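Morning. Coffee machine broken again, so started the prediction first thing and wrote up yesterday's gels while waiting. Chain of 401 residues, entered below exactly as on the submission form.
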Amino acid sequence: MPIYKARAMRGDGRLVTVAQDAPNESELTREFERQGLTLARIVKISDAAKSTRTSWSVPRHALIDFTDRMQLLYAAGVPLAETLLEIEHGMIDPRMRAITGRLRSEVENGTSLSDAIGRFPNVFPKSYVSSVKAGESAGALDAVLERLLAQMEWDQQVKSQIRAAFTYPCVLAVAVTGLITFMITFVLPKLMAVFDGARVELPRPTQILLAVASLVQNHGGTMLLALVALLATFVLVRRTPAGGRVIDSALMRLPLVGVLRRKLASARFVSQFRTLHRAGAPVMTALELARDSCGDAAISQDLDAVMSHVSDGMPLSDALATSREIEPLVPRMVRVGERSGSLDEALAHVAALYDREVKASTKRLVAILEPGVLLVAGFTVGFVVFATLLPLFRLFGAIKR
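Came back before lunch.
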């Protein structure tokens, strides 16, 4: 069925923009008349627009921008439909602008905001939808949006820090790999041609380097395909429930990296659970959605057991204490919050603490990783240069004799 975007006037003289499907323009006009609207302008949109847009995904920064604008306008007392209209006109990302238009149309037709955003699962996560629904029920949507915005900005900031921490080592590793590949595939064979006619015994480092060069030249394609296949297998196995749990559990045992992963996953769990709990979501719902958003299969498996204990009547702090993967401070602070009746405040302290801990762990990892990569790269390049030039020194010595 075609979708039409229409501009119509209400009985009070205000103009509204509506996107609605209808068999034809005449039927749409009659529908508007039944609603007391006077049609001013109508444009037909693609028949596939509706199904296409519900499957769209948008960049994370676009969702943060949407939430920021939504919180500011709604907290200022602007009606929801007008808030969405203002956001639609101000959004830079075209997909988010189109999605906002659909949300506004749904809200103007009587749909709640949580139900409207729930139709775009690739844009709005389950935890986002549940938080908005809880905020609507409690009449505190502006406060929920503020906490969602703070949580997404924190998560984005941490991801940016981790990405920046690994950018330099990765670039250096790629550059060193390219340099070594160039030397052993182009420079070294030409130099070895000089020694073919000379009676100079090649030193052991040069022999090792020639063996590596021969292996790369003869089986480089096969090695590259094997590496790609290994990485693809790793990704596919990690996406399975069992494989993800095994791999994430193994990563948790690594020094430095494991500590950072554990603290980051625990921080995400605490932050998400606090947001949902303050919005008024039931404990089991908050645990389930926080489990899905922590980003670690090993902790998610532990949280399944935690949820089972809570459903059996165990206090939340005692249930969290049974987890082997969650940071020990989490159940201790939850116990303090349960005893004092201020669980939200206790969770806020935990979230703030892990915010600092994650940043500090990232800095420590960078402080160790960068010198380590430099040492390995320097040793590797030095060995290749030494193994390449050493035969020249021997050849010059043989010529002098």
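Residues 46-52 have pLDDT under 50 and may be disordered. Going to sketch it on the whiteboard this afternoon.
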